[in-house]
Design brief:
The structure is a single chain. The termini are far apart. Strands 1-4-3-5-2-6-7-8 form an eight-stranded parallel sheet, with helices on both faces. By secondary structure, it is an alpha/beta fold. The relative contact order is 0.19. It has a single domain, classed as Rossmann fold. It contains nine helices and eight strands. α3 links the parallel β3 and β4. α2 packs across α9. Bound molecules: guanosine-5'-triphosphate (GTP) and magnesium ion. The site of guanosine-5'-triphosphate has 17 residues, from α2.
Amino acid sequence: MRVIELNASVTDSNDREAEALRKELHEKGLLLVNLMSSPGSGKTTLLSALISDLRQELKIAVLEADIDSDVDAIAVERLGVDAIQAHTDGMCHMDAGMTRRALLSLGAQEAQDSPDSLDLPDYDLVFLENVGNLICPAEFDTGAAVKMMILSIPEGDDKPLKYPLMFSQSDILVITKMDTKDYFDFDMEACVREVKRLNPDIRIFPVSAKSGEGMKELEAEVRERMAVWKSGRA
Ligand SMILES: Nc1nc2c(ncn2[C@@H]2O[C@H](COP(=O)(O)OP(=O)(O)OP(=O)(O)O)[C@@H](O)[C@H]2O)c(=O)[nH]1
Ligand SMILES: [Mg+2]
């Protein structure tokens, strides 16, 4: 497992870079999913559960972004998929340039010498586990085709009120740790109502990565998104 050190991109055109990366990935038929949430809400655990099933049929890789440590990349690599640990030099998010560099380091050695071309193995699906927080990652387009966020039951149902940008930008909301719902006063109805007010198109999946509840439905959504992404290629 490799660890790469990334600095924030020196550019004022992140949106343009993100659009260019998304287009390149689309041409390759590679679906990049940007997974975002607060620290400890269950990103790595959810990814591990998703990968265990999806890897039977898809070639998957994971970009783990953190300020420090390599524990998450080690955890997903144990499942038999390629993983890169990206360190963000203290930054609380990944931008499009950083994501491109992390993707490049997944590729063949030669790709390091030609950083303009994404010389990657034939992945179907790459997950980016973004740095844990609900603020900065919502502000930076990484070039991913799908933005998936997690809210866990112990965090509370008021998070859409406090971090509206993250909820309004995401395509998929996973409400996880459903196995703990009897221990917390989480008002699911109020939470869903506020999320839908912010983002009427968002798809919401209540799951537990521990018990497996709701995981089949979430996997089906990922498969469906990938089929649409691949079929829409130029
Ligand atoms: N009960 C329960 N615990 C869970 C579930 N998913 C994750 N956890 C626990 O939540 C804790 C944090 O999970 P992680 O997957 O490391 O969370 P993360 O979002 O990747 O954390 P960072 O990478 O540090 O931001 C761990 O103790 C997990 O075992 C779940 O569905 N149910
Ligand atoms: Mg993690």
